[in-house]
Amino acid sequence: MDVLNITDAMQKNSAQAARFLKNISNEQRLLILCILHEEELSVGQLNEMLPNLSQSALSQHLALLRKEGFVTTRRDSQTIYYNLASNEAAQIIHLLHQLFCKEECS
Questions:
Q1: Which of 13, 28, 62, 71 has the fewest other C-beta atoms within 10 Å?
Q2: How confident is the model at residue 9 (pLDDT cuts 50, 70, 90)?
Q3: Model pTM score
Q4: What string of H, E and C letters represents the secondary structure of 74-100?
Q5: Separation of alpha carbons 31 and 46, rounded Å
Q6: d(CA 62, CA 39)
Q7: Domains and CATH numbers, the chain
């Protein structure tokens, strides 16, 4: 592989990484992903766990995370459950937990 092809691949990968990081760089979205890393939850359950976030704002964050492939949904009657779908996000959340939470988040 020549230098030009490597540079093209690096540029493509860096753009993908930047988009990924941009999507999780919002404090509320990061918190949502951290919570969903632990377990599948309904919108109502998430809303109870995030009292400083309006239901409207929560729905907007969840819609973006779903659109970008970070979470998936499951419907049970009228309740929609969210779970972490992205292996990359799970790995990053795990690393961030090790770096920043340690015992106090366990």
A1: 13
A2: confident
A3: 0.85
A4: EEECCEEEEEECCHHHHHHHHHHHHHH
A5: 10
A6: 15
A7: 27-105 (1.10.10.10)
DSSP state of 53: S
Instruction: Provide the terminal-to-terminal Cα distance of the chain, rounded to the nearest Å.
Output: 45
pLDDT tens, 23-72?
Answer: 999 999 999 999 999 999 999 999 999 999 999 999 999 999 999 999 99
Q: Does pLDDT of 2 surpass 70?
A: no
Question: What burial class does residue 106 get, using C-beta atoms within 10 Å of its C-beta: 0-12 exposed, 13-18 middle, 19+ buried?
Answer: exposed
Tokens of 105: 């988040």
User: The tokens 């795990």 sit on which residue?
Assistant: 94
d(CA 20, CA 69): 10
